[in-house]
Design a protein that fits this description.
The chain is mostly beta strands. It contains two helices and 28 strands. The strands form seven sheets. Strands 6-5-4-9-10 form a five-stranded antiparallel beta sheet. Strands 22-28-27-24-25 form a five-stranded mixed beta sheet, with no helix packed on it. The protein has a four-stranded antiparallel beta sheet with strand order 1-3-8-7, with no helix packed on it.
């Protein structure tokens, strides 16, 4: 009676084990995941089990079958796959990107079926940029930059402009899995440097940077006289007018007085010992040969004699100096 009871318990215990195995409590654990091309990967069962027979497949493709201490490896994995006859662990050597997938183990003697996914990735090398052109007209050109690698799989792309990440906007497009960056209506603030950072779970790499030459202007002109905000001066003064314009390439600057061109070019106009008849509008004209655009700025200068009160004040200030000079002599 006792032996029968023990036998019944053993059958129940075995049934419980088989139920646990069949319910998915047994897991397949890869030794590396993701793996790099060329690695050796072992797929083991956890918790471990003793399997006398079974098969391994990736997706619907059989890799091998085994019974006791004999195995049959299918041609697709010949020379690269083997099984541990005791534990049923599968070892794959020299793995390739094509080896990525869901690996399934089945065993008839314990009614076991379990699976696990593995990824095999290629490391990234030689990240490079290709551009359509680098000399562009502001608001009239688009830049197209393509990022590529010599090797690598499961790639992700990150674009940088200087220290800032480039994201999509009304002027920025990311296409081809973010490997191509397009900036429409390029502005002077889009000069770069642009670079591409490529990464996957096992490696990363960055490209050299590329800069754009943006032709623009002239605009945002400024004109100062003796570095002051005032435009009124007394006769006999020396005036230095400074003109500037935002432009690339630098604008050609020409000066004009009362609408008539002067024989003065460049950012500076100097007048010495000015007189009243030099009062009037002074203009700085800017021209950019590359954009064929021009701009100008004008300031009205007033030159007048000192008033009588100003002259008397000056005389009063000079008297002590005159007395001191007489005393000394």
């Amino acid at each position: 009676m006792e032996k029968k009871r023990e036998g019944t318990l053993a059958i129940v215990f075995l049934a419980l084990i088989q139920g646990v195995l069949a319910s998915g409590a047994v897991e397949v654990k890869p030794s590396i995941n993701p793996a790099i091309v060329g690695d050796t990967v072992t797929l083991s069962l956890s918790p471990s089990a003793t399997l006398k027979s079974g098969s391994w497949a990736v997706g619907k493709t059989l890799i091998l079958t085994w019974l006791d201490d004999q195995q049959a490896v299918f041609p697709s994995h010949s020379g690269r796959a083997s099984v541990n006859f005791l534990t049923g662990a599968l070892t794959l050597s020299s793995v390739k990107v094509a080896d990525s997938g869901v690996y399934i183990v089945q065993s008839s003697d314990t009614q076991l079926k379990a699976n696990a996914s593995i990824s095999v990735l290629e490391t990234i090398s030689n990240v490079a940029l290709r551009v359509n052109q680098t000399d562009l007209m502001e608001f009239n050109s688009s830049a197209v930059i393509t990022c590529s690698v010599s090797s690598g799989s499961s790639l992700s792309f990150l674009w940088m402009n200087g220290s800032s990440e480039v994201t999509e906007s009304d002027r920025v497009e990311l296409t081809d899995g973010n490997s191509t960056l397009t900036v429409v209506n390029m502005s002077r603030y889009d000069q770069g440097p642009f670079r591409c950072h490529v990464f996957n779970p096992v490696s990363n790499g960055s490209s050299d940077s590329v800069n754009f030459t943006i032709v623009y202007g002239p605009d945002s002109m400024a004109l100062t006289v003796n570095g002051l905000n005032t435009t009124s001066f007394s006769t006999g003064s020396n005036l230095t007018m400074l003109c500037s314009a935002q432009s690339n390439p630098p604008a050609q600057l020409q000066w004009a007085f009362r609408g008539e061109l002067l024989n003065t070019t460049g950012p500076l106009l100097e007048l010495f010992g000015v007189s009243e008849d030099q009062s009037g509008p002074y203009s700085c004209l800017a021209f950019n040969n590359n954009t064929n655009m021009n701009s100008n700025i004008t300031t009205h200068i007033i030159i007048s004699k000192r008033s009588g009160s100003e002259q008397r004040t000056l005389n009063v200030c000079l008297l002590p100096l005159l007395f001191m000079s007489g005393f000394l002599f």
